[in-house]
Amino acid sequence: MHIPENYLSPSTCAVMTAAMVPVWVNAAKKVKTEISKEKMPLLGIGAAFSFIGMMFNVPLPGGTTGHAVGGTLIAVLLGPHAACLAVSIALLIQALLFGDGGILAFGANCFNMAFLLPYAGYAVYGLLNRKSSSEKGRLAAAALGSYAGINAAALAAAIEFGIQPMLFHTADGQALYCPYGLNVSIPAMMAGHLTLFGLAEVVFTTAVLAFVTRTSPDIVKGRPTERSGRPMLILLALLIAVVPLGLLAEGTAWGEWGTDEIAEVVSGGEVLGYTPAGMESGFELSTIMPDYTVAGLPDAAGYIVSAVIGTAICVIAFRLISSGMKQKTNYN
Hints:
Layout: H1 10-34, H2 40-53, E1 58-60, E2 64-66, H3 71-78, H4 80-98, H5 106-129, H6 135-162, H7 164-167, H8 182-193, H9 196-215, H10 217-220, H11 230-241, E3 266-267, E4 270-271, H12 277-280, H13 299-323
Antiparallel strand pairs: 1-2, 3-4
């Protein structure tokens, strides 16, 4: 679901980034008033879970792949505003260090995965959770919320892809950016997310939420202590150890092909046959660990190193923010 560089026009990227600015500002204000000093490091752990979750690629018949995001999970534990910031940080690290998602498309990716996903997922969760006070009911509400959230994000991405050839094309009709219209992008994106990718989000959300409920119930109750995040850090370490499993999924996620392969892609039953000019001449950022690889290391080892680095940055960033906060006498 990560929109790469040059799949959206620069003007589309600018609009999507502008749309996210008030969202980020509002989320930052809400987090500042709602999240206590003790809770702030948990945002870093939540961002790390999102970062790691997106590294576990799930294959779909036909050669495409997808992944969980974890936005609804963070929203259930810490609120949707916190989830917005946590997922945004995870996406920024992925784009800057690993080339996973474009820098110009950062606003669009955040709109889909850090805004629509957690807020929509939390809205569904909140509506359903009012009708049940049991742990099973809470997990069921989180499951349905996470499923709704990731599909809302996928639909938004499909629309952003699909309007490109309508708005930006050459005189002879060739697309300048994403070459597939809504008639192709929506079915292609939604087929995977309504099935296996949506299921991956449900499994990831409910499994981690159940783990936190059992090992750190004070987090669920909104009264974390300094030790509350330790079980979650242990779980993160275990996930990092097995993160190379994400490499087993072969193929490329729909809409994330490189300029060297898009001309040969078959989508909608036809070979595209050309490389959009905007992609060939567009902006490209050289990252230090492209596609989670490390020069000189096997892919599996590079994947683990990338997971460690991404997780560490997420955790450390929010711990530094926490260290500069004043102690609160009450919890919200």
